């Protein structure tokens, strides 16, 4: 059976900070960020945006194209959840007025959560092919100021409709998985920013890649990396995906260079790390920048610190290019408001992390907004300023 991604859409935050502005203000050579990490900008949420509002934007676009008939599940993956108990998808469900007869649940394992949600969705649809599942991955990657992770921040969401008649990309059944308990990146309940051992996290990522690849190869005797026309890897920053690619090429003796990952790297350099959504921004980037992939096998690598990884395979459908709109994504990215360093730092510091009552200012131009907290509950609403 051909189960996979039938529609895909993206959303990001209201503001963008150019990396050179961060570098210059903090006394760092801008080339470290733009060349060393490969990043150009990162998205910064307005005070009335969060993972739920970005997800709502992406899912509204998605169901505008596909409707909600036979949608029986909504899986929301995030590292930057807004509540310790209630699933972010339930806020989304209310905000968008989605059908009542759905199961709504949140997935968490750092950046890997989006892939866990996708695999569960694929399995559900394989069991009940008449059903569809909405998978949405949404995150605000927010690191401590002046930490090495600060230039790798970002914000964005990707929504996918999973069905048994995928017009964008079928996902093959066999995958390679890997788990190892590593303290490379974690966020205790009393911290709004993660604790990160940056260089350990890069090593853990690369080890998890070969671990997942080995499992994939053991389950697919005779498979070669040259069976794959392109690869898309989890992208906390562009350079990390290049390092992963080099590692796989040297591990498997494949002589190909970065030309087979390049098309998948455009958006992450513009939005920054989107944790659970980062790999999926990469997939959208590949499909909007390379229209000749129908029927090819695409190797996909997902990594979540802590650490869990998966190598799996997508096969773009015959007319996938008609169902992804690169021009609209470019317009969304270009419409972000550019901010300077001091505005960005003020936004970073003002972010509320408690549940006392407050109201947010009207800033976002997105269709849904976070209005603030009342009686310890987060309040979301349609943005009346958007037609
Ligand atoms: N011009 C050009 N390049 C320069 C430069 C300059 N002036 N100065 C430095 N560079 C290069 C360095 O050589 C290096 O490149 P290579 O690795 O290819 O040698 C690159 O810029 C970065 O330099 P450093 O390693 O010195 O940077 P750092 O130690 O300050 O920070 C980091 C790097 C540890 C990744 C940090 O950004 C970080 O902690 N990020 C968050 C954690 C992360 O993203 N880890 C990735 C794996 S974990 C994961 O993927 C899960 C997730 O999403 C978080």
Helix/strand layout:
Elements: E1 4-12, E2 15-18, H1 19-26, H2 30-37, E3 41-44, H3 51-66, E4 71-77, H4 88-96, E5 103-107, H5 113-127, E6 132-141, E7 154-163, E8 169-171, E9 176-179, E10 185-186, E11 195-196, H6 198-219, E12 230-233, H7 238-252, H8 268-271, H9 278-289, E13 298-304, E14 308-316, H10 326-334, E15 337-338, H11 341-350, E16 358-359, E17 368-374, E18 377-382
Parallel strand pairs: 2-15, 4-5, 4-6, 12-13
Antiparallel strand pairs: 1-7, 1-8, 2-3, 6-7, 8-14, 9-14, 10-11, 13-14, 16-17, 17-18
The structure holds acetoacetyl-coenzyme A (CAA).
Could you characterize what this model shows?
- Helix content is 33%, strand content 25%.
- The chain contains 11 helices and 18 strands.
- The strands form 4 sheets. Strands 1, 4, 5, 6, 7, 8, 9, 12, 13 and 14 form a 10-stranded mixed sheet that branches.
- Strand 4, helix 4 and strand 5 form a beta-alpha-beta unit.
- Helix 6 packs across helix 7.
- The termini are far apart.
- The mean pLDDT is 97.
- The structure holds acetoacetyl-coenzyme A.
- The site of acetoacetyl-coenzyme A (CAA) has 26 residues, from helix 2, helix 6 and helix 7.
Category from helices, strands and their pairing: alpha+beta
Instruction: Work out the strand percent.
Output: 25-35%
Low-confidence stretches: none
Helix content: 25-40%
Bound molecules: acetoacetyl-coenzyme A
Total helical segments: 11
The value of Rg in angstroms is: 20 Å
């Amino acid at each position: 059976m051909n189960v996979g991604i039938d529609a895909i859409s993206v959303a990001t935050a209201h503001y963008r900070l150019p990396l050179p502005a961060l570098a210059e203000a903090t006394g760092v050579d801008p080339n470290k960020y733009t060349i060393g990490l490969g990043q150009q900008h990162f998205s910064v949420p307005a005070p009335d945006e969060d993972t739920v509002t970005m997800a709502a934007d992406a899912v509204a676009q998605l169901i505008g194209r596909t409707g909600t008939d036979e949608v029986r599940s909504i899986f929301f993956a995030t590292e930057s959840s807004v509540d310790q108990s209630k699933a972010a998808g339930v806020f989304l469900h209310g905000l968008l007025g989605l059908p009542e007869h759905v199961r709504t649940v949140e997935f968490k394992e750092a950046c890997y959560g989006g892939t866990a949600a996708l695999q569960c969705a694929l399995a559900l649809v394989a069991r009940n092919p008449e059903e569809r599942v909405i998978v949405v991955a949404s995150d605000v990657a927010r690191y401590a100021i002046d930490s090495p992770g600060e230039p790798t921040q970002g914000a964005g969401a990707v929504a996918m409709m999973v069905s048994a008649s995928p017009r964008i990309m079928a996902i093959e059944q066999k995958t390679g998985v890997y788990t190892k308990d590593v303290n490379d990146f974690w966020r205790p309940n009393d911290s709004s920013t993660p604790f990160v051992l940056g260089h350990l996290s890069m090593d853990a990522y690369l080890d998890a890649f070969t671990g997942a690849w080995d499992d994939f190869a053991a389950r697919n005797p005779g498979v070669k990396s040259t069976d794959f026309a392109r690869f898309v890897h989890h992208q906390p920053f562009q350079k990390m995906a290049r390092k992963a690619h080099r590692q796989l090429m040297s591990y498997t003796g494949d002589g190909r260079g970065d030309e087979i990952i390049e098309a998948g790297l455009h958006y992450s350099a513009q939005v920054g790390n989107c944790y659970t959504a980062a790999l999926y921004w990469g997939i959208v980037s590949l499909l909007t920048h390379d229209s000749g992939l129908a029927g090819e096998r695409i190797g996909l690598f997902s990594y979540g610190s802590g650490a869990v990884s998966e190598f799996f395979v997508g096969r773009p459908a015959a007319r996938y290019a008609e169902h992804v709109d690169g021009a609209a994504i470019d317009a969304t990215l270009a419409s972000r408001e550019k901010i300077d360093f001091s505005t960005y730092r003020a936004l970073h510091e003002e972010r509320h992390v408690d549940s006392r009552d407050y109201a947010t200012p009207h800033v976002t131009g997105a269709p849904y907004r976070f209005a603030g907290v009342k009686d310890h509950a987060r309040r979301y609403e349609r943005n009346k300023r958007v037609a």
